[in-house]
Amino acid sequence: MFQGETAITVDDKGRLAIPTAYRELVAGECGNRLVITYNPFEQGCLWLFPHAEWEQVRDQVNALPKVKKVHRDMQMKIVGAAAVVEPDGAARILLPASQRATTGIEKKAVLLGMGNKFELWSEQAHLAKIRQTIGEDEISDDMADLRL
Questions:
Q1: Can you say whether residue 4 is alpha, beta or left, with left for phi > 0 and alpha for psi between -120 and 50 degrees?
Q2: Structural contact between residues 56 and 16, judged by C-beta atoms closer than 8 angstroms
């Protein structure tokens, strides 16, 4: 399980180092293979899945009927753009240039552990998102049952 927030530096070649706290988990549990793709719901964010988790997500997304445009759009953003990345000897992964450009991920980024996957945010998008508060009118029934 991934959790926590880490400030990340992306080098000039578009590589980022997997945080030390996750290296053993990525090497062992993930077989040193991650899949990086767009988050179709948030601008400025990429998803990084362990390969086994990715296969389940990919199969679910690909099973959506292709006659609906929204399904095709999701398939394009999640499956069509997916890239397998493997950490090098220094535990760095190379982020695809097209994904960096589209999301605005440059020198500084934020890596969030979100349970079954990571989210990689551009620094600006993360800051804007984290500064937003959840309004009372946005609270769902499921959220109302939480004991926070």
A1: left
A2: no
